[in-house]
Amino acid sequence: MKVIRSISELKHELQQYRVSSQHNAKIGLVPTMGFLHNGHASLMTRAREFADVVVVSIFVNPIQFGPGEDYETYPRNEERDLALAEKQGVDIVFIPTVAEMYPQPTKTKIRVSERTDRLCGASRPGHFDGVTTVVSKLINIVQPQFAFFGQKDAQQVAVLQQMVMDLNINVEIVPCPIVREEDGLALSSRNVYLNTEERKQALVLSRSLRDAEVAFNDSKSVTASELREKILSMIQSSPLAKIDYIEVLTFPELIPVADNAIVTEVESQIIIALAVKFGTTRLIDNMLFMPKGAFSIV
Ligand SMILES: Nc1ncnc2c1ncn2[C@@H]1O[C@H](COP(=O)(O)OP(=O)(O)OP(=O)(O)O)[C@@H](O)[C@H]1O
Ligand SMILES: CC(C)(CO)[C@@H](O)C(=O)[O-]
Ligand code: BAL
């Protein structure tokens, strides 16, 4: 496994793969912010199935953090990350510095409208401009055929799919399923911030989504607002939970489902997306539902 820190060296290395391969090596990119866990590992495994060369980037991207967010304290552990990537059979780990990615403050940003209006786009103004800008840069540098993203960050997947479609970027965005701890908590680098009590109470996210899934499967007449209320009351029973949002939307368009709509009758895929704070740690989770007539794009 090669560890590369400069853009020019990465481009050179990838060019070697392209010209030396008899089969036109397919490149898979897995963008991350490091502090890798099994959710990231699952993206690498998926990438290996699609691509001959797997490139993982590790970069805590300052321009997707707002003022007062956790850019400075975001967990980092390069040694452990490299060991995990090596174990996953990754070919190249790209670890640029901020100065390498942004030699001067970027004067150009990519902004996707509409799909960024709600959920984390509303709670974290400018966040997705930072994500789409850095992902475009990474795609331009690596020129992969495939790029892999976790469905845990479902809005990120929807926004990036919109971006590559609108800008005719020649890459397939491949969404990958959410990896969870045995007790249901979605893996996230930020879980490390949780103290014992917060970690315990954070289980309410996956449990409330599972309850919603049961209601969805058992009742032919459950409405969007009933599903939302069910989740709301369950999360509110956790004293430490501070709700940012609970929304029922179509996916990937992210258009709100009408309160009185019977969810099993909606003709597109539906997402229930949550963001909840426990102490200072903001966690997100979601579940996709496939009403009758809808077909999956994930
Ligand atoms: N539990 C998970 N299952 C599947 N994919 C995941 C999971 N957690 C993160 N990913 C994906 O890994 C990629 C890199 O994410 P990132 O490095 O921000 O990790 P993270 O655990 O989501 O961190 P954070 O705590 O900052 O949200 C993203 O595409 C993200 O969706
Ligand atoms: C895609 C990403 C690596 C861009 O910085 C980040 O938003 C993340 O880790 O999900
Ligand atoms: N995985 C999302 C990256 C962020 O929270 O900034």
UniProtKB/TrEMBL annotation:
ATP binds at residues 33-40, 150-153, 179, 187-190. The active site is at 40 (proton donor). One of its GO terms (cellular component) is cytosol. Its main location: cytoplasm. (R)-pantoate binds at residues 64, 156. It catalyses: (R)-pantoate + beta-alanine + ATP = (R)-pantothenate + AMP + diphosphate + H(+). One of its GO terms (molecular function) is ATP binding. Keywords: ATP-binding, Cytoplasm, Ligase, Nucleotide-binding, Pantothenate biosynthesis. The keyword Phosphoprotein does not apply. The keyword Methyltransferase does not apply. Belongs to the pantothenate synthetase family. PANTHER family: CYTIDYLATE KINASE/PANTOATE-BETA-ALANINE LIGASE, PANTOATE--BETA-ALANINE LIGASE. Homodimer. This is Pantothenate synthetase. It comes from Paenibacillus crassostreae. The gene is panC.
